[in-house]
Amino acid sequence: MNFKLNELEEKQSFKKEKKVIWRSPSNIALIKYWGKKEKQIPANPSLSFTLSKSYTETSIVYKEKDNSYSGSLKFMFEGKENVPFQKKIEGFLNNITLYFPFLTEIQLIIDSHNSFPHSAGIASSASSMSALALCLCSIEKRHFGTLNRADEFFTKASFIARLGSGSASRSLFPYAATWGEIIENSISSDEFASVLPFDLHPRFKNYKDAVLIISKQVKKISSTVGHGLMKGHPFAKERFKQAKNNLKHLLSDLQSGNEERFIEIVEKEALTLHALMMSSNPGFILMEPNTLKVIEKIRDFRENKGIKLCFTLDAGPNVHLLYSDNDSDEVEKFIKHELVPYCEDKFWIADKLGEGPIEIL
Ligand code: DP6
Hints:
Layout: H1 2-12, E1 18-31, E2 36-37, E3 41-42, E4 46-64, E5 73-77, E6 80-81, H2 83-95, E7 106-114, H3 125-144, H4 150-164, E8 176-179, E9 193-195, H5 202-205, E10 207-212, H6 223-228, H7 236-256, H8 259-278, H9 289-305, E11 309-313, E12 319-324, H10 328-339, E13 348-352, E14 358-359
Parallel strand pairs: 5-7
Antiparallel strand pairs: 1-4, 1-14, 2-3, 4-7, 4-8, 5-6, 8-9, 10-12, 10-13, 11-12
Helix pairs in contact: 3-4, 7-8
């Protein structure tokens, strides 16, 4: 009995330094989250594919506070101290002590690195905030014996990741995830993302995502500013309705394997996102001439070869080309010969759908 008590005390205590590591992927939205309410509640539901090769690996070394360094957090990015990121993370951790009260007792050294170059123009908030949320959930699980069921664990991680960055909530699930209330579908919530309520059609499971880096420049507008543009946007109401409808149809296509309608919806969503940005006040043009060239080439290739592939865009100039692994040979030749010349420094990332995060330690 005594032995058990000591064991429990030892488990709960933060006296000895410990370490946790998670690797979490980025995701690409097919139905776009654009516009939010207070507390990171999305204005419309969204759906994304989970990637595998673009990820963030985050480790946290933690122990009881002993003032061995100033403050209670040291944040390292790609092996170097990074003050701006540290400030952002400090603010985030302060906001979530309600959900992790132990954060007031410990000091942390967080070390984070991305599998993709920082200058690739790829947003890393989804992979980095989800990796951080997973690490915090692991600390809770190890020390307090809670979150033992996988669904509980990933739901809390998704909820916490969402508070850091909305799209991060969707990075935690195999292949695809939805986030945001869809009427008639009680599984999807505004508070956290969830896995699809059915098996993804095999044709989509082996989808690849070629991320064509048209420009390596960092984002011209931050997501906070971007989402803010939807407040009072003249098309907001219709847009939120459209996103819900698109999502319902896309869910059915992802189950049945209806690639034609999938392509139609995915491209419409990408162009709508940019149309909303262009028509907001102030308006932004984030596509570049080469973005349009690549889009045109993709549409011509689809028409001429009869191969089903499509594009989507983030809030920036880079193009994500989605295609089935069954068509890899032809599509990858097309990428190398016809699309890569439009990429900055000929840079592109060959990614694909993946199984979600991995616990490393
Ligand atoms: C265009 O998740 O980066 O990529 O919640 O403010 O961190 P915050 O925004 P963020 O927005 C992503 C916008 C998008 C579309 C999407 O991923 O759904």
